[in-house]
Amino acid sequence: MAAPGDAAIAEKEPYAEPAQHAGRVGVVDIGSNTVRLVVYEAPTRLPIPVFNEKAQCALGRGIASTGKLNPNGVTEALRSVRRFVRLAAAIGVDRLEMVATAAVRDADDGMAFTRRVERACGLPVHVLSGAEEARLAAVGLLSGVPDADGVLGDLGGGSLDLVGLNQGTIGEYAALPLGHLRLAEDSGGDHAKARKILDDQLSTVPWLGEMGGRAIYAVGGSWRALARVLIDQTHHPLHVIDNYTIGFFDALRLANLVAGLSQSTLDRLSGVAKNRVETLPYAAMALAALLELAKPREVVFSGFGMREGQMLELLPEDLRHQDPLISACESQAERTGRFAIRGRELLDWMTPLFASETDEERRLRHAACLLSDIGWSEHPDYRAVHAYHRVLRIPYAGLTHETRVQLALSVLVRYNGACSYNGDVDDPMVAPVHNLLDDAELERSRIVGLALHLAHTLVGSAPGLLSQTQLKVTKTRLTLELPKDRAVFLGEAVERRLRTLARAMDLKERIG
Fold first, then answer.
1. What band does 275 get if pLDDT is binned at 50, 70 and 90?
2. Phi/psi at 282 (nearest 5 deg)?
3. How much is the pTM?
4. Which positions ≥6 away from 249 have C-beta within 8 Å?
5. CATH number of 131-307
6. Is residue 14 within 8 Å of 29, Cβ to Cβ?
């Protein structure tokens, strides 16, 4: 008799020859709770996701009591993997990696399941060890937070992987049977018992007690769902999960609060998928237990983890070390740009305005230059507001919430005068995010935006002309130096925007 799901995949269906496309890689992640396909664009820079779909399979449900994968989950997982493999071929994936995590690793029938997947799809399944899963999660996190310092916690359905991070260096790790599905089952729904299981397991990791005053980096779908609740509860002005940061005391208080919510209250939570609600209290409980033991300074939620780490493993060495933010912005500029000024050309031209900037400030200014023409195809009445929102929520690694706001405000001001909205950083629409920045950061964002506005006006956004001009700054004057043949550069709009920039810097303007 055929096993559950065999009828749907009785014949081996080899991975089809991919459509012609310049470098796409994909990862099928067969997890304890979900099966997911993520496809990344990977030509000459760090990839960005172009496709992301998950199926709720709950492979690990019941494994604690039966020792075997959930039969219904197996059927759904096989169906989903078969679909994902065919989709990957149609999308044009050049290399597809299939990985399985805790549930498949721990189940008595895990290897039999992987053989069925391999027969159906014609691709090998790599069952990650606990050490591999933890390392890949750390690699994925570090791609966006290269100097991460503290402990990474990756909460899945079947396990909690912990990795020590020492200013960007991967240290010790532990893989514990504390996934949110498993914790709910092992405790029989008894919260007191669940907390004892957590405390007993976490106490076996002695180095967690050395993390005081550093950060916990929270990875995994259930902790991302928890982050949405925390964002709502704290009225945080930016609804972006990646790099959402909350202090120790607020995180502990709210995690304990969510852990104790009734089912009816959980069902009313906004922004949490129904399939996450049931085990959300256990995810919150796991975070609270980890917080009480490690006593970090803050919790940083990350949108990057094991899948991103696995993706990076598929890339040539030279791509892995690119700055993820600059790489993504360069790709964005190439895909959506017209004949626009090159980012490096803008960056160098503006540098005299920022003589004492830090490396991180220059990096952010470079990103603003690369994104400064992002709204060119929008209707003129809406360019500023649409560009602002796109940049504020852009799904790129390497941005904190504070730097994300700075970048969005600079692009907003770059479109000043292009519409009735006028790109005013004091407008009520953008005022809520002001609390994330201090006065100096707000002022710098404004200056960057005004300089970008001047540059694009000066040369009509055409490449190759800007380097014929030069900005010079003294204690009292901002001078725009032009070549002898200056007809292409001079105009009323140029003079007006030079004057606006100079006044913002408390300087007099001059054209030389």
1. confident
2. -75, -35
3. 0.86
4. none
5. 3.30.420.150
6. no
